[in-house]
UniProtKB/TrEMBL annotation, chains A, B:
Database matches in NCBIfam families: hrcA
Function, in words: Negative regulator of class I heat shock genes (grpE-dnaK-dnaJ and groELS operons). Prevents heat-shock induction of these operons.
PANTHER family the UniProt entry points to: HEAT-INDUCIBLE TRANSCRIPTION REPRESSOR HRCA
Family, as annotated: Belongs to the HrcA family.
Protein name: Heat-inducible transcription repressor HrcA
InterPro entries: GAF-like_dom_sf, HrcA, HrcA_C, WH-like_DNA-bd_sf, WH_DNA-bd_sf, WHTH_transcript_rep_HrcA_IDD
An example Gene Ontology biological process: negative regulation of DNA-templated transcription
Any one Gene Ontology molecular-function term assigned to this protein's record: DNA binding
Repressor is among the record's keywords: yes
Keywords: Repressor, Stress response, Transcription, Transcription regulation
Keyword Cell membrane found: no
Heat-inducible transcription repressor HrcA C-terminal domain ranges (all copies): 104-324
Amino acid sequence: MLTNRQLLILQVTVDDFIETAQPVGSRQISKKEGVTYSPATIRNDMADLEDMGFLEKTHTSSGRVPSEKGYRYYVDNMLTPQRIPNVELQQIRSVFEERMLETEQVIRKSAKILSELTNYTSILLGLDVRKHRIKRFSIVPLTDDSAVAIIVTDSGHVENRVFSIPENFTSSDIEKMVNMLNDKLVGVHLHELSSKLELVTKTILQQRIGHLENLFGSFNKAISIEHGHEDKVYYGGKMHLLNQPEFNDVAKARSIMYWMDHVNQIPGIFPLDKMGIQIRIGSENNHLAMENCSVITATYSIGEEQTGSIAIIGPTRMDYKRVVSLLDIMSGDLSKELSKLLHGHYE
Amino acid sequence: MLTNRQLLILQVTVDDFIETAQPVGSRQISKKEGVTYSPATIRNDMADLEDMGFLEKTHTSSGRVPSEKGYRYYVDNMLTPQRIPNVELQQIRSVFEERMLETEQVIRKSAKILSELTNYTSILLGLDVRKHRIKRFSIVPLTDDSAVAIIVTDSGHVENRVFSIPENFTSSDIEKMVNMLNDKLVGVHLHELSSKLELVTKTILQQRIGHLENLFGSFNKAISIEHGHEDKVYYGGKMHLLNQPEFNDVAKARSIMYWMDHVNQIPGIFPLDKMGIQIRIGSENNHLAMENCSVITATYSIGEEQTGSIAIIGPTRMDYKRVVSLLDIMSGDLSKELSKLLHGHYE
DNA sequence: TATTAGCACTCTCTCTTAATGAGTGCTAAC
DNA sequence: GTTAGCACTCATTAAGAGAGAGTGCTAATA
């Protein structure tokens, strides 16, 4: 168990290191406001904190630096939410002020402002399109043997794919198909589309219109290709990370950039199932490149099904207080605004 | 005028520096295959080449490094096209082998393979959507006061925008509008859409259906927003540049990354008007961040109007021979493949 | 008993110095 | 015209010295 003084010293050490990026010495702490102990006393406590694994030394006679365990303790127990100045609240609200009509725009702009306010890198995961419901099908022929299929969802999102038309199909066949699609499949989730489509195809076989089978097959092939289906990822301030002193090494910078570019392919980065704010410190990210990084994620949601995710990536030495507060505000606002956008009212 | 020996020495110097990234000394050159002169002789010629501005020294007693003028001369006069090994040709061709139906896919994959083959960064500028012709309009209502407008072009590209529906318009009004749009505006170029639309709106006023004016206005506002209209840019191997020894400095790396992210907003980077291969060396790029970079661009085209652009960004010390050959092959193949895709046949 | 002052010790950082070696420029010989 | 020889320059590396920041331990103090 930590004494009060040890708690104070741990907190001051972490705060100071977050601010200066330099190892913190006992003398430096003793001069802080609110600290009344002499350097020697502080040294004793710091040695204890080191024994307990909360602090580390970079070398024998250096000041202390928080360990991962130290950050973890700090984050779990000492994170008093920070008041965000009005000017900045204003900035966030301004994202939603001008009336934008498309979710993509809103998300993109949110990513930008978040990275600007934090000076770290922001990653926003768009709403999972697969959970949107189909509103309308439409097919536009392009050449003799190809056409573009268009699927509009209830969120206003538009998916489109070119597919090839087998020989001997006329435009009236295609019209028939579109009608059937709109008849049978409006309202289903995008991710169910492929399986439901097969059901429909089976029904076709049982009816007179069995010759449409090929057409449906080609269509199904086109929409099953995953290429556009993966979740959309929006970045803000990718370069901000390079400003941090811990990434002055090009090799490190490169591996982090690489990690970021593939973040949506790594499972478990965005915990969409857990609501609220999650903090992952250093090695908790389970990736070598992220050793010196922390990731803070928050979720936003519309209704009960649709959830998206916001993340901020910074050095482990990042300003947790501030980032958590900002993410909290942002995710709330985003939920509200998108609900309004998609359902025409606040939920 | 340069003597033959000077030409030889310049060429060997540039080639060697491209390969090793180290200043080239006279002794090193004398040991090269095809060089029969002693280091002293070579030193004399190198001094002359330096006087003429083709070579530079990094310090008094260092070997020589090509100057921008040296690279320029090399590129203009000594660039014998390199034979690309069959294995690599095969790799390029493989992009087009599996039958892909969408231009975006083809371009994306081309960018990837190009960066892999060169180990530099590739940038592909997609076809200018604004030159595509409109094939079909369609409007899908979302909520009471919003709808998504969809425009399909002859290339299979789909543009979509959400727009708000003023009060008191019924779905039959919208149907009327769609019919009129399809009636009057199919076949026009996307970039003419806005101006032609105004003409149509004027005609409306002169007819009974004047009450549709507001609806057209709202629609026009939505499609005039430029946000999706800017040319699409596809990157390949963004991180490759960081592997080059000249960018070991994080500050340099950052400014180049920044430049790349904004490259489509800088006019004149992609000379779409000039066909063929263009090489811009160092300061010829007119940007401080690109001092140490060269950009090689090639154009590809479909028919006579539609042109896109391919670029490779590398250090000034890049392997010009190889890159030029690769770009030449790639741009040709891309033109062929996309023509087939969009017009159903080779041009 | 908890806190603090004092002091020796450790380790990094920076600056200096010296040695090494790659490469040049010049001059004289071939 | 070409080359060998040699003095000279400058980057790079290693080693050493001094300064400074910070620690750990012990003994004194409240």
